Structures are given as structure tokens and as C-alpha cells.
Amino acid sequence: MKKFLVIGNPINHSLSPRLHNFWFKENNIKAIYESLKLNTNQLDQLIYDLKEKKINGVNVTVPFKKEIISYMDKLSEEASAVQSVNTISLEDNKVVGYNTDIVGFELSIKETKFDLKNKNIFILGAGGVVPSIIYSLNRMNVSQIFISNRTKMKAENLKRIDKNLTVLDWGEVPDFDMIINATSVGLNKNEKIDINFTKMKNKFFYDVIYNPKETNFLREGKKLGNKVLNGKMMFIYQASAAFNLWHKINPEINEKTIKLLD
Ligand code: ATR
């Protein structure tokens, strides 16, 4: 039986196993998908197991998306551009790193019919997923991207991905159309981002977090009458793109799939 993994640390929160195992059943694929908490010193063994076909594919999450790159024989163009790998497959005995967060984010936006072309975007946070989001935003031809991170230097470093980024101080608010919470604040229920949102109206509030379903950021955005979206569809679309890379099947995404993650 084929075996697939999501690796990270911590990893117990990941809903990837639930989604992939559901799609295995739906598509009559004899395989199992599990989560595995790893330390850096175990990455070597993981790659060895992939090459030995003891493992047939791996999803990578925090904190390994960048670190894993040095173990890859080859990178997709997107993974290379953002220096972030979330999906690994073995092709002609080569370990190939892909990034499906980019397409995941993009499809989640396209579905809303909110046209990002020439819009101003304000990103909060500068963690692992942000390079992918920036790449995706640029592909959708946004106008300007503002970014602000509690640790400013980390936002400054993202200019390597996009030299046109405008880095703001934490707490500074630009003129924008869409605001994205890419911080981890909200993962624990009722945590609040220490930014004043009260003047933000007629905007699009997007939270990368999908569990809990409604962070304080989204709750506040909604209360002010803004359009809101959590990270659930991004998560589902990144998973379906990984599934397609491994199994050459586009899994169906319907109400049942979406409910699965509630
Ligand atoms: P990593 O930094 O390892 O990639 P992440 O979960 O992807 O982890 O990123 C966490 C993000 O949430 C970071 O941007 C972090 O800001 P710092 O770079 O200053 O650490 C941000 N974050 C976490 N707690 C925060 C808080 N209380 N207020 C504001 N930002 C916070």
C-alpha cells in the first residue's frame, strides 16, 4: 500500500490526513496518508525513505518548507521562485519539490470573483506562507503590496522575493483594498492582533487561518461590514494540487469535502 505523509513540528493540528484519506476512498486509491512530527535531524532519513519508495509523497508544513529545499534534487519553477516547498514527489528517482500554496491561494481568490487586478494589498505577518502569497498576488496583477510584521527585519527580507514590496512599521496602516492576516495570531481562539481595524470599511478581510473558522480578525472585519474569507479554501486547493501531482487525478471539491474540515 502506498504511503503519504505530512511533516511538520508541531503537526497534530493538520487536517491534511483527513482530506487526502477521504479522496483516496472517493477515488478507490489503495493508500494511506499520515502526519509525522519530525526534527531537523530526521529529514535525511525521510528523503532516504522516499528514494527507497517506502514513502510515496510528502507534504511539508511549518517549520520545514524552506529547510527541506537543500534535500531536493530538483525544484519546480514556483518553489524555486519563493524558496518554499510544500509538496514532494519522486520522479525518475529524483526528489522533486513543488509549491502548491501559490495555486491554493490563487484559486481561493478566483472563486470569490473579487478581482485583485490593480488593487492594493496589505499583508500582516512575514512567516512561511507569505512568499507564496506575494508570488500569487503578483501573478494576479495587483497594484501595490504593503507588508508589516512585528519583527520588521523579516518583512524587509521578503524584498528578495519582490523588490517592489512596501514595508511598513507594525501598526502603520496604508490605503488598501484587501488585508491578509498571515500571522499566527488567532490560531488560539480569542487572540487579538494589536492593530486598530475600526476604520477599515469596504475592504476584503482574508485570514490564512482556517481552524478556528472565524478568528477575531475575521469577526471584527465582518462586524464592520467587510467581505471576509478564511483559509479553508486555500488549504483545500493546495491539497488538491498536491493530490493531482501524486495521483494525476483532480479530486472533486464539493460541499462534503468542505464540511469534512469543520
Ligand atoms: P515562521 O515565522 O516560523 O514561518 P509562521 O507561523 O509562519 O512561523 O509565522 C508567524 C507569523 O506570525 C510571524 O510573522 C510572526 O511575527 P514575528 O516575525 O515578529 O515573530 C507573527 N506573529 C506571531 N505572534 C504575533 C503577535 N503576537 N503579534 C504580531 N505578530 C505575531
Explain how this protein is built.
This protein is α/β, with parallel strands linked by helices and 262 residues long. The protein has helices spanning 16-26, 43-51, 77-82, 101-110, 130-139, 152-157, 216-223, 232-247, 255-260; strands at residues 2-8, 31-37, 57-60, 74-75, 87-91, 94-98, 120-124, 144-148, 166-168, 178-181, 204-207, 227-229. The strands form 2 sheets. A 6-stranded mixed beta sheet has the order 2-1-3-5-6-4. The protein has a 6-stranded parallel beta sheet with strand order 9-8-7-10-11-12, sandwiched between helices. The structure holds 2'-monophosphoadenosine-5'-diphosphate (ATR).
Keywords summarizing the entry:
six-stranded parallel beta sheet; globular; single chain; binds 2'-monophosphoadenosine-5'-diphosphate; 262 residues; 9 helices; six-stranded mixed beta sheet; 12 strands; alpha/beta
SSE diagram, text form:
Blueprint: E1 2-8, H1 16-26, E2 31-37, H2 43-51, E3 57-60, E4 74-75, H3 77-82, E5 87-91, E6 94-98, H4 101-110, E7 120-124, H5 130-139, E8 144-148, H6 152-157, E9 166-168, E10 178-181, E11 204-207, H7 216-223, E12 227-229, H8 232-247, H9 255-260
Parallel strand pairs: 1-2, 1-3, 4-6, 7-8, 7-10, 8-9, 10-11, 11-12
Antiparallel strand pairs: 3-5, 5-6
This protein binds 2'-monophosphoadenosine-5'-diphosphate.
